[in-house]
Protein backbone atom coordinates (compact mmCIF):
# COMPACT_ATOMS: atom_id res chain seq x y z
CA UNK A 1 0.00 0.00 0.00
CA UNK A 2 1.27 3.48 -0.81
CA UNK A 3 2.20 5.88 2.03
CA UNK A 4 -0.59 8.14 3.18
CA UNK A 5 -0.52 11.77 2.12
CA UNK A 6 -0.84 14.09 5.13
CA UNK A 7 -3.42 16.81 4.47
CA UNK A 8 -4.95 19.77 6.29
CA UNK A 9 -8.64 20.61 5.98
CA UNK A 10 -11.46 22.97 6.95
CA UNK A 11 -15.18 22.11 6.90
CA UNK A 12 -17.45 25.03 5.96
CA UNK A 13 -21.21 25.48 6.15
CA UNK A 14 -23.93 24.06 8.34
CA UNK A 15 -26.45 21.87 6.52
CA UNK A 16 -24.91 22.09 3.03
CA UNK A 17 -21.28 21.58 3.88
CA UNK A 18 -18.11 21.47 1.85
CA UNK A 19 -14.55 20.64 2.85
CA UNK A 20 -11.47 22.61 1.84
CA UNK A 21 -8.28 20.56 1.69
CA UNK A 22 -4.84 22.19 1.68
CA UNK A 23 -2.21 20.29 -0.27
CA UNK A 24 1.51 20.86 -0.05
CA UNK A 25 3.59 20.38 -3.17
CA UNK A 26 3.18 16.83 -4.60
CA UNK A 27 0.41 15.94 -2.11
CA UNK A 28 -2.82 14.50 -3.48
CA UNK A 29 -6.36 13.61 -2.49
CA UNK A 30 -8.70 11.08 -4.13
CA UNK A 31 -12.43 11.77 -4.50
CA UNK A 32 -15.62 10.48 -6.02
CA UNK A 33 -16.14 11.69 -9.58
CA UNK A 34 -18.16 14.91 -9.61
CA UNK A 35 -17.51 15.86 -5.97
CA UNK A 36 -15.10 18.74 -6.68
CA UNK A 37 -16.34 22.26 -5.87
CA UNK A 38 -13.28 24.36 -6.76
CA UNK A 39 -9.50 24.09 -6.92
CA UNK A 40 -6.60 26.52 -7.03
CA UNK A 41 -4.33 26.95 -10.01
CA UNK A 42 -1.52 24.41 -9.85
CA UNK A 43 -3.69 21.46 -8.88
CA UNK A 44 -3.93 18.86 -11.64
CA UNK A 45 -6.66 16.23 -11.74
CA UNK A 46 -6.37 12.74 -13.16
CA UNK A 47 -9.10 10.13 -13.62
CA UNK A 48 -8.00 6.66 -12.51
CA UNK A 49 -9.38 3.15 -12.16
CA UNK A 50 -10.25 2.25 -8.59
CA UNK A 51 -9.04 4.24 -5.60
CA UNK A 52 -5.41 4.86 -6.51
CA UNK A 53 -4.00 2.90 -3.57
CA UNK A 54 -2.80 0.06 -5.82
CA UNK A 55 -1.56 2.00 -8.82
CA UNK A 56 1.99 0.80 -8.18
CA UNK A 57 0.93 -2.82 -8.75
CA UNK A 58 0.22 -2.19 -12.41
CA UNK A 59 -2.78 -2.95 -14.56
CA UNK A 60 -4.03 -5.88 -12.49
CA UNK A 61 -3.99 -3.79 -9.32
CA UNK A 62 -5.90 -1.01 -11.04
CA UNK A 63 -8.47 -3.47 -12.41
CA UNK A 64 -8.86 -5.02 -8.96
CA UNK A 65 -9.53 -1.62 -7.41
CA UNK A 66 -12.04 -0.79 -10.14
CA UNK A 67 -13.77 -4.15 -9.70
CA UNK A 68 -14.23 -3.49 -5.99
CA UNK A 69 -15.94 -0.20 -6.78
CA UNK A 70 -18.32 -1.86 -9.25
CA UNK A 71 -19.39 -4.32 -6.53
CA UNK A 72 -20.24 -1.44 -4.19
CA UNK A 73 -22.37 0.21 -6.88
CA UNK A 74 -19.96 3.09 -7.50
CA UNK A 75 -18.33 4.33 -10.70
CA UNK A 76 -15.35 2.50 -12.17
CA UNK A 77 -13.39 5.72 -11.92
CA UNK A 78 -12.20 8.07 -9.21
CA UNK A 79 -10.37 11.38 -9.52
CA UNK A 80 -6.98 12.24 -8.03
CA UNK A 81 -6.24 15.91 -7.34
CA UNK A 82 -2.50 16.53 -7.00
CA UNK A 83 -0.75 19.79 -6.19
CA UNK A 84 1.99 20.22 -8.80
CA UNK A 85 2.81 23.77 -7.74
CA UNK A 86 5.78 24.66 -5.54
CA UNK A 87 3.54 26.23 -2.88
CA UNK A 88 0.46 25.10 -0.95
CA UNK A 89 -2.79 24.96 -2.91
CA UNK A 90 -6.43 24.27 -1.99
CA UNK A 91 -9.13 22.02 -3.43
CA UNK A 92 -12.70 21.80 -2.13
CA UNK A 93 -15.36 19.08 -2.30
CA UNK A 94 -19.09 19.56 -1.75
CA UNK A 95 -21.58 17.21 -0.13
CA UNK A 96 -24.19 15.80 -2.58
CA UNK A 97 -27.23 16.56 -0.37
CA UNK A 98 -28.01 18.24 2.98
CA UNK A 99 -26.17 16.77 5.91
CA UNK A 100 -22.81 16.71 7.65
CA UNK A 101 -19.30 15.88 6.51
CA UNK A 102 -17.51 13.51 8.89
CA UNK A 103 -13.68 13.63 8.95
CA UNK A 104 -12.14 10.39 10.22
CA UNK A 105 -8.44 9.82 10.82
CA UNK A 106 -8.22 6.10 10.16
CA UNK A 107 -5.19 5.87 12.43
CA UNK A 108 -7.43 6.85 15.35
CA UNK A 109 -9.96 4.06 14.68
CA UNK A 110 -7.49 1.21 14.25
CA UNK A 111 -6.72 1.74 10.57
CA UNK A 112 -10.06 0.48 9.25
CA UNK A 113 -13.66 1.66 8.98
CA UNK A 114 -16.79 0.08 7.49
CA UNK A 115 -19.15 2.54 5.81
CA UNK A 116 -22.34 2.42 3.79
CA UNK A 117 -21.51 2.36 0.09
CA UNK A 118 -22.64 5.92 -0.74
CA UNK A 119 -21.11 7.67 2.28
CA UNK A 120 -17.56 8.16 0.96
CA UNK A 121 -16.69 11.67 -0.27
CA UNK A 122 -12.89 11.93 -0.48
CA UNK A 123 -9.67 10.85 1.26
CA UNK A 124 -5.94 11.40 1.36
CA UNK A 125 -4.28 9.50 -1.47
CA UNK A 126 -3.11 6.13 -0.20
CA UNK A 127 -6.32 5.27 1.62
CA UNK A 128 -7.67 1.99 0.26
CA UNK A 129 -11.38 1.94 -0.59
CA UNK A 130 -12.47 -1.67 -0.86
CA UNK A 131 -15.46 -3.85 -0.10
CA UNK A 132 -16.75 -5.45 3.09
CA UNK A 133 -19.06 -8.45 2.75
CA UNK A 134 -21.64 -8.99 5.46
CA UNK A 135 -20.95 -12.35 7.08
CA UNK A 136 -24.55 -13.05 8.04
CA UNK A 137 -27.26 -13.88 5.53
CA UNK A 138 -29.85 -11.78 7.38
CA UNK A 139 -27.67 -8.67 7.39
CA UNK A 140 -26.92 -9.14 3.72
CA UNK A 141 -30.49 -9.63 2.54
CA UNK A 142 -32.30 -7.18 4.78
CA UNK A 143 -29.68 -4.74 6.01
CA UNK A 144 -30.64 -1.90 3.69
CA UNK A 145 -27.17 -1.81 2.11
CA UNK A 146 -27.05 -5.47 1.11
CA UNK A 147 -24.09 -7.80 1.49
CA UNK A 148 -21.56 -5.20 0.41
CA UNK A 149 -20.42 -2.11 2.25
CA UNK A 150 -17.25 -0.05 1.79
CA UNK A 151 -14.08 -0.83 3.72
CA UNK A 152 -11.69 2.11 4.21
CA UNK A 153 -8.16 1.13 5.23
CA UNK A 154 -5.01 3.11 5.95
CA UNK A 155 -3.68 5.62 8.41
CA UNK A 156 -4.76 8.87 6.76
CA UNK A 157 -7.81 11.13 6.65
CA UNK A 158 -11.06 10.06 5.02
CA UNK A 159 -14.22 12.14 4.69
CA UNK A 160 -17.71 10.65 4.82
CA UNK A 161 -21.06 12.35 4.29
CA UNK A 162 -24.11 11.74 6.48
CA UNK A 163 -27.62 12.95 5.64
CA UNK A 164 -29.39 15.06 8.22
CA UNK A 165 -27.73 15.37 11.62
CA UNK A 166 -24.71 13.22 12.45
CA UNK A 167 -24.65 11.22 15.71
CA UNK A 168 -21.56 9.47 17.05
CA UNK A 169 -21.70 6.88 19.82
CA UNK A 170 -19.17 4.61 21.47
CA UNK A 171 -20.62 1.24 22.43
CA UNK A 172 -19.16 -0.56 25.42
CA UNK A 173 -18.44 -4.32 25.25
CA UNK A 174 -21.78 -6.11 25.01
CA UNK A 175 -23.79 -2.89 24.74
CA UNK A 176 -26.51 -3.24 22.09
CA UNK A 177 -28.37 -0.64 20.07
CA UNK A 178 -31.21 -1.13 17.57
CA UNK A 179 -31.00 1.21 14.59
CA UNK A 180 -33.05 1.89 11.49
CA UNK A 181 -31.12 0.16 8.73
CA UNK A 182 -30.88 3.33 6.63
CA UNK A 183 -29.51 5.41 9.52
CA UNK A 184 -26.27 3.50 9.93
CA UNK A 185 -23.43 5.46 8.29
CA UNK A 186 -20.25 3.78 9.54
CA UNK A 187 -18.88 1.51 12.24
CA UNK A 188 -15.60 0.11 13.44
CA UNK A 189 -14.92 -3.52 12.47
CA UNK A 190 -15.02 -4.49 16.16
CA UNK A 191 -18.76 -3.69 16.23
CA UNK A 192 -20.97 -6.71 15.58
CA UNK A 193 -23.72 -5.99 13.04
CA UNK A 194 -26.83 -8.09 12.43
CA UNK A 195 -30.51 -7.74 11.48
CA UNK A 196 -33.48 -8.22 13.82
CA UNK A 197 -37.14 -8.62 12.89
CA UNK A 198 -39.25 -5.87 14.47
CA UNK A 199 -41.68 -8.48 15.82
CA UNK A 200 -45.45 -8.84 15.47
CA UNK A 201 -47.09 -8.92 12.02
CA UNK A 202 -49.22 -5.86 12.79
CA UNK A 203 -46.18 -3.88 13.94
CA UNK A 204 -44.16 -4.99 10.93
CA UNK A 205 -46.85 -4.12 8.38
CA UNK A 206 -48.33 -0.95 9.87
CA UNK A 207 -45.74 0.41 12.29
CA UNK A 208 -44.03 2.48 9.62
CA UNK A 209 -40.54 1.42 10.73
CA UNK A 210 -39.98 -1.32 8.16
CA UNK A 211 -39.64 -5.05 8.76
CA UNK A 212 -36.14 -5.10 10.22
CA UNK A 213 -33.84 -3.21 12.54
CA UNK A 214 -30.06 -3.19 12.43
CA UNK A 215 -28.68 -4.49 15.71
CA UNK A 216 -25.18 -3.28 16.58
CA UNK A 217 -23.24 -4.60 19.56
CA UNK A 218 -20.06 -3.13 21.02
CA UNK A 219 -17.28 -2.59 21.60
CA UNK A 220 -16.54 0.19 19.16
CA UNK A 221 -17.76 3.41 17.59
CA UNK A 222 -20.76 3.84 15.31
CA UNK A 223 -21.94 6.86 13.34
CA UNK A 224 -25.63 7.42 12.54
CA UNK A 225 -27.54 9.84 10.32
CA UNK A 226 -30.92 11.27 11.30
CA UNK A 227 -32.38 11.46 7.79
CA UNK A 228 -31.36 8.80 5.26
CA UNK A 229 -31.49 10.21 1.76
CA UNK A 230 -33.70 7.33 0.61
CA UNK A 231 -36.30 8.34 3.21
CA UNK A 232 -36.15 11.98 2.11
CA UNK A 233 -36.42 11.03 -1.56
CA UNK A 234 -39.45 8.79 -0.96
CA UNK A 235 -41.26 11.59 0.88
CA UNK A 236 -40.54 14.02 -1.96
CA UNK A 237 -41.78 11.58 -4.57
CA UNK A 238 -44.92 10.83 -2.54
CA UNK A 239 -45.70 14.53 -2.10
CA UNK A 240 -44.97 15.61 -5.67
CA UNK A 241 -48.11 16.23 -7.77
CA UNK A 242 -48.35 14.20 -10.96
CA UNK A 243 -49.79 15.68 -14.13
CA UNK A 244 -52.35 13.62 -16.03
CA UNK A 245 -53.25 13.47 -19.71
CA UNK A 246 -55.25 16.68 -19.64
CA UNK A 247 -52.83 18.61 -17.51
CA UNK A 248 -54.76 17.94 -14.31
CA UNK A 249 -52.83 17.31 -11.13
CA UNK A 250 -53.46 13.72 -10.02
CA UNK A 251 -51.62 13.87 -6.70
CA UNK A 252 -54.76 14.81 -4.76
CA UNK A 253 -55.66 13.46 -1.36
CA UNK A 254 -58.28 11.21 -2.97
CA UNK A 255 -55.65 9.45 -5.08
CA UNK A 256 -57.22 6.81 -7.32
CA UNK A 257 -60.76 7.56 -6.07
CA UNK A 258 -60.34 11.12 -7.24
CA UNK A 259 -59.37 9.93 -10.70
CA UNK A 260 -62.49 7.71 -10.86
CA UNK A 261 -64.68 10.70 -9.89
CA UNK A 262 -62.94 12.75 -12.54
CA UNK A 263 -63.92 10.18 -15.14
CA UNK A 264 -60.35 8.94 -15.66
CA UNK A 265 -60.17 5.47 -14.13
CA UNK A 266 -57.60 3.90 -16.43
Overview of this protein structure:
- The chain has 266 residues and is an alpha+beta fold.
- The chain is built from five helices and 19 strands.
- The protein has helices at 58-71, 137-142, 201-206, 229-239, 256-261, and strands spanning 8-12, 18-23, 28-32, 36-39, 43-49, 77-83, 89-94, 99-105, 112-115, 120-124, 128-133, 148-153, 157-163, 166-171, 176-180, 184-187, 192-197, 212-217, 220-225.
- The longest helix is centred in the first third of the chain and has 14 residues, at 58-71.
- The protein starts with 7 loop residues before the first strand and ends in a 5-residue tail after the last helix.
Structural class call reads alpha+beta
Might you state the CATH topology name? Double-stranded beta-helix
State the separation between the terminal residues, measured CA to CA.
60 Å
Helix-strand topology string: EEEEEHEEEEEEHEEEEEEHEEHH
Number of domains: 1
Could you say what the CATH architecture is? 4-Layer Sandwich
Using the CA coordinates, give the radius of gyration. 22 Å
Which ranges are low-confidence, i.e. pLDDT below 50, for 5 or more consecutive residues? 137-146, 246-254, 256-266
> What is the typical, i.e. mean, pLDDT?
77
Number of DSSP helices?
5
Number of strands: 19
Q: Portion of residues in helices?
A: 10-25%
Shape: globular
Main beta-sheet annotation: 6 strands, antiparallel
The side-by-side strand order for the widest beta sheet comes to 5-6-3-10-13-8
The named CATH superfamily = Mitochondrial biogenesis AIM24
Please indicate the percent range of residues in DSSP E strands (runs of 2 or more): 35-45%
CATH class: Alpha Beta
